[in-house]
């Protein structure tokens, strides 16, 4: 009976003590080394505080004098987001079929997955820079960027949904002698439609948000207006734009959440 | 009676009721209208649009083959990018813990703290990393520090929100048991809350690290360190073979991040 301990300890997260302490030590060393070797120039930071103060005092109060410009920028962002969402979804559906392991043959599957992985890997700003160089400044480059961005997200999640479908309906259609397209249209599409609509609404919201960023590198919309304001030291206008962006994002999040709840 | 109604149903079978059909067609029409409005009023130079495929082909032609001559400095910048993402995630996780604690309805000390927590989360999440980076480059000067702080500021909102939701979903009973034993607030958190949110905590931190890897690839474009600096330099000098090399390295980094994070997630959950 003496073996029963009268104190209790929390069981450790990783049972092997060598591995546990080794891991802790490795993380701590990495953290310390990278933190200590950070090139922080404290003189520069104290200069920066003055600058930050200048930026903030220049930003308050926010200026809504050029509300017209702000409104135009937003309308452009909205149009970019709408067109990119529609274009992105039209491309995502065939891509998702390609990237679904239960529908596509192996080479097509790998190609589809590859396209989706590449589309997801690059930050929209990088994609935007490339498109701006290729097709020039303006909303067209922004729309192309967000099409790529939408493919990465909608394509991936839709492909996963297709892989989860009830395959009985596909088998029923096949045994009745239906063609490939007919099978997709009548046995697969109805099953993934709710997900597709939900993803589309979510993506519209997320494209609107992203379109504010890609504009900073010249791809049109409110981001272009923001970058201009920042570049001309119009901090009060920049703050006004940022505030409106935040407000619009909150509203669009609420609206898309509401619609998705109604649909699901 | 049964056979009659069955016959009727079979003759007139439709998938949707009239109301549903009207709603669907209404939805389609509305979507078409909105798209038409956007297409007709957007300020696009259509000549550039028709020109786009050949321009794109031209650009990709210039990028081939990728030029690895600058690989050592690209790899160094990639290492910097990994450091920015990792350090910022680690610090943000620590900072977001108290924020999540006061922003969760069941652990917040009072209504005021709840609103302070909510405000921190919303303002952190709704400003984009690039905009945070613009601000911190002005404060800290160009370089990795501004990048770390920008990523950190953005991550706090994300981590705090998801952790707060995990805290709100805990089982109350261990908390009540410890309260009944007279445990201190600190002990309640440590023994009744922490073990329950631990898996969510690690899952969320790993997910954010993965996102931060992607985000930190663009910080350099506004001067906040990492691979983006090299990318920007190569683009500005029209050094397209180097651009494609950088893009390939970023692709490898992101795939690496996804492999590592899915491995860690499997280990933990």
Architecture blueprint of SSEs:
The complex is a heterodimer of chains A (264) and B (269).
Chain A: H1 17-36, H2 42-59, H3 67-98, H4 106-121, H5 124-135, H6 139-163, H7 168-175, H8 180-214, H9 222-231, H10 235-263
Chain B: H1 2-11, H2 18-41, H3 46-63, H4 71-103, H5 111-126, H6 129-140, H7 144-168, H8 172-180, H9 185-216, H10 227-236, H11 240-268
Number of domains of chain A: 2
Q: Approximately how much beta-strand content do the residues of chain A carry? A: under 5%
CATH class of the largest domain in chain B: Mainly Alpha
What form of chain B results from the Cα inertia axes? extended
Biggest interface, and residues per chain?
A-B, 58 and 58 residues
Class derived from helix and strand content of chain A: mainly alpha
CATH architecture type of the largest domain in chain A: Orthogonal Bundle
The biggest sheet of chain B amounts to: none
Strand content of chain B: under 5%
What sequence of helices (H) and strands (E) makes up the elements of chain B? HHHHHHHHHHH
Question: Could you give me the name of the CATH homologous superfamily of the largest domain in chain B?
Answer: MetI-like
Tally of alpha and pi helices of chain A: 10
Average pLDDT across residues of chain B?
83
**Topology, number of strands of chain B:** 0
Structure write-up:
Chain A: One of its GO terms (molecular function) is ABC-type phosphonate transporter activity. Chain A: The chain crosses the membrane at residues 21-40, 80-105, 125-152, 172-189, 210-231, 237-259. Chain A: It is found in: Cell membrane. Chain A: It is a multi-pass membrane protein. Chain A: Keywords: Cell membrane, Membrane, Transmembrane, Transmembrane helix, Transport. The complex is a heterodimer of chains A (264) and B (269). Chain A has helices at 17-36, 42-59, 67-98, 106-121, 124-135, 139-163, 168-175, 180-214, 222-231, 235-263. Chain A folds into two domains: 17-56, no CATH class; 67-263, MetI-like fold (Orthogonal Bundle). Chain A has 264 residues and is an all-alpha fold. Chain B has 269 residues and is an all-alpha fold. Chain B folds into two domains: 18-53; 69-268, MetI-like fold (Orthogonal Bundle). Helices cover 81% and strands 0% of the residues of chain B. Chain B has helices spanning 2-11, 18-41, 46-63, 71-103, 111-126, 129-140, 144-168, 172-180, 185-216, 227-236, 240-268. The model of chain B has no long low-confidence stretch (mean pLDDT 83). At the A-B interface, α1, α2, α3, α4 and α5 of A face α2, α3, α4, α5 and α6 of B.
